[in-house]
Amino acid sequence: MEASTTINEMLFGNKIFIPSYHQRGYSWDTPFEGNQLNTQIDVFLSDLEEYSKSSSQTAYYFGHFLFEKKSESKRTYGVIDGQQRITTILIFLSALFRRLKSIRLLTEDEVELFERMIKCKSKYIFSTVYLDNQLFKDYVIDQIKKNKNDVETESSQRIVNAFDFFIKVLADKDGAYLTKMLRIVSEASCTTHHLKNETEAIQTYIFQNKRYDLQK
């Protein structure tokens, strides 16, 4: 995994997961009817749309991601910092591909992007926390789960809410909008760093969470 890369390249060929010591599930909120306050989800989308309307010649920037590299595999990484952004990117892309498939067949390049960033055959690129992962796969990635009444955790409900929000927002978008947004996200720049020692990774995670708690 290169230090300076793109979202497409960061995800491609890797297995990215949330380590067991990670105690936080998905925490980004979604706007609901009657709520006029900005939430992380609509800010995520509005920032992308604002960039798409700009004349910027530089790639959209998704920030820095910190990983723990698992020694037993060259391509397996645990997320220390960046969990919420990666999860939201995958939720958004999955909703985008669903809308794109509903209006036309995917091009070869689009199929390749789906396989590089979301799922290739039976291999899921990203896995969230254990308690939410089956729901994430069934509802967001494979889209085989329709019943939302048995969602067990608050973070799972947030995943469902985010996916449903993106599905609703993208429902009237045309192919030009969708392909442009797919290009912006897949080619977006980011920086990465990975730690090879699990003890150091755990200590870094604890430090990051203490800083997060102090900022709340």
* Number of separate domains: 1
Q: Order of strands across the widest beta sheet?
A: 1-8-3-4-2-7
**β content, as a range?**
15-25%
> How much is the radius of gyration in Å?
17 Å
Could you name the ranges where pLDDT drops below 50 across 5 or more consecutive residues?
none
Helix vs. strand class: alpha/beta
How far apart lie the N and C ends? 31 Å
Total strands: the figure is 8
Portion of residues within helices? 40-55%
Largest sheet: 6 strands, mixed
How do the helices and strands follow one another from N- to C-terminus? Answer: EHEHEEHHEEEHHHEH
Task: Describe the global form.
Answer: globular
* Whole-number mean pLDDT: 89
Number of contiguous helices: 8
Please outline what is shown here.
With 216 residues, the protein is of the alpha/beta class. 50% of the residues lie in helices and 16% in strands.
SSE layout and pairing:
Elements: E1 4-6, H1 7-11, E2 15-17, H2 40-53, E3 61-69, E4 76-81, H3 83-103, H4 108-117, E5 119-120, E6 123-124, E7 126-127, H5 130-141, H6 154-170, H7 175-186, E8 189-195, H8 198-215
Parallel strand pairs: 2-4, 2-7, 3-8
Antiparallel strand pairs: 1-8, 3-4, 5-6
Helix pairs in contact: 3-6, 3-7, 5-6
Properties at a glance:
alpha/beta; 216 residues; two-stranded antiparallel ribbon; 6-stranded mixed β-sheet; globular
Question: How would you describe this structure to a colleague?
Answer:
The protein is built from 8 helices and 8 strands, in the order E-H-E-H-E-E-H-H-E-E-E-H-H-H-E-H. The two termini are 31 Å apart. The protein is 50% helix and 16% strand. The strands form 2 sheets. Strands 1-8-3-4-2-7 form a 6-stranded mixed β-sheet, with helices on both faces. The chain is globular, with a radius of gyration of 17 Å. A hairpin with a 2-residue loop joins strand 5 and strand 6 (123-124). The protein has 216 residues and is of the alpha/beta class. Helix 3 (83-103) packs parallel to helix 6 (154-170) and helix 5 runs parallel beside helix 6 (154-170). It has one domain (4-215).
